[in-house]
Amino acid sequence: MTTDERTQETGRPRRQPSVVTAAVSIWAVVLVERIIVFSVMSVLSALRAPDLLPATVVAWVLGLGICALLAWATLLVWRGSGTARVWLGVMGAFALVNVVVMALTGNASWLTLEAVAVIAAAVLLCLPSARPWFPRVERRPRVPEPRTIGWDPQTGERITEPREAADPR
């Protein structure tokens, strides 16, 4: 099967749309920035309050773990995963709520730019030009359960048709 035939069969373009590339690039920049901020803030926190070092280390590990999950989702979006696209969209929605709260309370800072970048990346992944990169997967039919023909009076378990009778294959 040639690449052209595979493209026609799946409906997926051979080249990644530029909006997907831009969104993944934005996520990569945001993740690098988050890792740097987590690391610097953890070091500063440990220097200011050495007695809170265990809590600082736990917070740093949790922050890096969240960044690792987001990096994994970004990699999956790069490969064409629709599920990862949805999860990054959810993160964009959380960022939107964060920006609105920051704007209403007057606490906007340079960290607001990170949230705006995440919102932009989420919007880029939802544009119509990005949709062909995330093909729909055909649903597999469920195997029908065997029909219940009664209940065992002693154990209460259900009695079903034999598998051969239930499965016409």
TrEMBL record:
Biased composition (Basic and acidic residues): 158-169
UniProt keyword annotations, A-Z: Membrane, Transmembrane, Transmembrane helix
Membrane-crossing residue ranges in chain numbering: 20-45, 57-78, 85-104, 110-130
Region (Disordered): 143-169
Protein name: Integral membrane protein
Source lineage: Bacteria, Bacillati, Actinomycetota, Actinomycetes, Micrococcales
